[in-house]
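Researcher: Please predict.
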Amino acid sequence: MPITIRRALESDAPALSRICLLTADAGTSAESLHDYNELPGLVYAVPYVKLPTTFGFVMVDDLDDRVVGYILGSTDTRAFEAYAAKHWWPQFAEQYPPSLAKKPADERYMNLLQKMHTSDDGCIGFSPAHLHIDILPEYQKQGWGRKLIAEAAAYLKDEGLKGVWLGLDPRNDGARLFYKKLGFQHVDGTSDDHMGLKF
């Protein structure tokens, strides 16, 4: 199938949010877990086309001009966290109070919006840059994940960075194996849920 990789745009936000939802349950769809389907994307995808210090690339299926995968991240995680704490999370913390939640997954995200986690110092010591990658299931295992990571790595090297790290769902063994094949290793001094790649 013909696929184009291009820079992510702010106008891609709805597609990014949808992909995030369809892969949010350890790589599978989280639709049934949420009444508020937008919550995973508001945390892990949409900020990366809205806030400073971010970058991203998307996979587009040329047959229907549909975004079917992405790699998103920040070149300066601490700056991203500080900006989001002032200008991004508060509006959604107000919009989605935990009292609205009827499902555990919604409650978990709503609590997160009230007090967003910050990155482990060990990860920041490894690299100031982090990323997220998600591809719709029907486009996986075709080499596109490797190409997206190569695209992001080339961009980050041009920005003067020497590595990047990511967090992963501990239940997603397939993702862990995929990253290991690409040279990602456990980031020393952090939990098992963090892997990093030196360029």
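Model: The chain has one domain: 3-198.
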